[in-house]
Each structure stands twice: as C-alpha cells, then as structure tokens.
Amino acid sequence: MAPYLKSELALPPVDRVASAFLKQDETIDAGARALSAYDEFVGLLGDRAAREELESLDREAATGSEVFQRVKSLGKILEASLLSLLFEPGDKAALARNYLVF
Amino acid sequence: MAPPTLTPVDDSIVAKHSPYGVSTGFMRDLRGDWDGQIELASRVSTTAIELSALSEDEVEPLLDFLGRVPSLPFRFKSVHGPAKNRQLDEAALVELLLGFRGLCDGIVMHPDTMQDLASYRELGSDLIIENMDARKPSGGTVDDLNRVFATLPEARFCFDVAHAWSIDPEMELAERLLDAFGPRLSHVHVSSLDAGLHHVSLTPADEALFASTLRRCLDVPWILEAPPPLLS
After folding, report:
1. B232: pLDDT strictly greater than 70
2. Domain containing A78: what range?
3. Which one of A11, B14, B42, B117 counts the least CB within 10 Å of its CB?
C-alpha cells in the first residue's frame, strides 16, 4: 500500500483525477468533460478581462454576465462529473457511502 | 414519482439515472399554460426539465414567465428554442434568446433551422446544438455538426439518442457523435421514434439497445421527449 500511495501522491493532482476517471469505462467520457471544464476555468482565471468583469459584478448584474454564467456552468459540469466518478456505476455507491461519508 | 419507462426499474438505466426529467414539448394540450406544464413535468421528476418554445410565438411568453416566476424546483432547466413558425430575422431572434441568459442552463436549437450560423455566436455557451434525425437534410452527422461547431466553437451539444438511431440503427453514429462532441455535451434527449420518426415513449427494446451509449452520458441530465408511462 505504501509504495502505491507514494507513487500516486507523486503525480500532479490533475493526473490523479484523470487516472481515476480512466479506470472505468462508465466514467471516461465524464472525465473528458471534467477536464475540459477545468481547462476552460483555468483559462478564464488567466484572462484579465474576465477577472475584471467578475470583480465588477454584484448579484443582480451576475445574471446577465456571460462570463459569470459560464463560470457557474463550468462549476456544474465539474460537480456532475465528479459525482459520477464517486457514484457510477451504481454499485460504487455503496463504497462511497461506506468510505467517503464521515 | 413513478418509473420513467416501461422497463422494470431493476433493469432500467433511465430509472436509475439522476437527473432526468421531461420536455414540455409533448404537452400540446397545455400550450401557453407554463404553470400547468411545470406541474405535469414535476409529477415525473423535479430535478430536470426542458421548457419547449418550439414555435417562435412561444418564446416571448416563456421569457416573460421565467422572468417573473420566483424559482422552479428543477436543478437543470433547458429551453428548446423555435424550430417552426419562424418570422423574425436571425439577429432579432438571437437578441430575444439572449434574454434567457441566467434564467436557464442553455437554449437548444436545431441546426437545420439556423440559416446564418455566425449570428448565433453571441449566445456563446448558452447555445446548445442538437443532432438531427434522418428526415432532416442536414445536422445529423459528425461532418454536419463539425461545420456548425466550427462557426460556433463555444456552443454545447444536445445528444438525441433516437435521432442518431434513425440514421444508423446499429448505433455506430451515436458512438461517433459522442466521440466527436462528448466534451461539449450538455444533456441527452431520450425517446423512441415511430415509423414517421416522431418521438414516442421509450420502449424497453430501445432502452436496452441505447443502454451502452447512454452509459457514456451518466453525468449529464436526460430529458424524456415523450410522455413516460405515468403520463401517457
């Protein structure tokens, strides 16, 4: 177990997440969506105009902001794909309940 | 909540999926009655819905409804944009559709009804392009959709599994569509088709046939395009 953990922890975090998605056929496509969303989010973080728009928004203005709505949408994509990683296929739900909650 | 398909729950991939919901497109008797459509849709699921404004004259009333309703229970709300009775020029239609920004999770459009693709670019990732069925002259194949996404690179993809089946019952096209556009997948349309290629309730045979393709889409919402047994 120790060598396994050591080799896993030596990987960059994104590689570890990608590897987890690739371990099962049911989650490969979700992994592509998760990492595409992550890539786009990192791109937005590097975009000064996008950052300035986000900083300028209040709650009302956020509704009409394309950048804000896209960031919100990327968050939903990442959430849904990570949930599928934890709970799909269905028999994995028992493992998630036993080992991930409390 | 009642089962969404005729397949026994233990064997049904749709019944075990979350989130799923219905399109209001089949609720012809409730046209214009958004509260009634939502009430009916909620009997199937309160996690996802597609609000249908298939006729152009339904767009403004739906915008008005979504703008004044305090909140809806659905975690995922898409809008199906107009595919018939089109009167507005495309710039005016896009301007209208921009009003949905922030009110829903995206606007589905049929690519064969979009004449000037570039005018839709302003919708960015709020625009969702659906693959078409065998009746349509274009919009059903990977090549067709590659041309659309080349002009609309931020647009997302709505995968209609039955439309793909209508072109290739062996389901190889379905796999190729997901290979090509899976990373931009927003949600899935699920139904069977009758002989005229109209959406009908998902049959157990089709659910079994579509299952391996649907397993590639477990992280996105599934929208039933025809009434489930509970409503039919």
Report:
1. no
2. 2-95
3. A11
Tokens of B132: 């078409």
Instruction: Please indicate whether, in this complex, the C-beta atoms of B183 and A36 are within 8 angstroms of each other.
Output: yes
Helix ranges (DSSP H) in A23-65: 25-45, 48-56, 59-62
Q: Is A100 inside a domain boundary?
A: no
Mean pLDDT of chain B: 94
Residue B38: both structure tokens together: 């939502």
A50 domain-assigned: yes
Q: Can you tell me which residue has the tokens 């992550």?
A: A38
**Amino acid at position B50, single letter:** E
Looking at the domain assignment, is residue A102 inside a domain? no
The ranges assigned to domains in chain B are: 9-224
Domains held by chain A: number? 1
Chain B 1-30, CB below 8 Å of chain A: which residues?
16
pLDDT at A101 over 80: no
CATH no., domain B9-224:
3.20.20.150
- For A32, the closest of B16, B126, B182 (CB atoms) is B182
Q: Give CA–CA dist B123/B92, Å, rounded.
A: 12
- Tell me what ipTM this predicted complex has: 0.87
- CB–CB of B218 and A88 under 8 A? yes
Please give the residue of chain B at the shortest CA–CA distance from A88: B218
Measure CB to CB from residue B101 to each of A32, A66, A89 and give the nearest one: A66
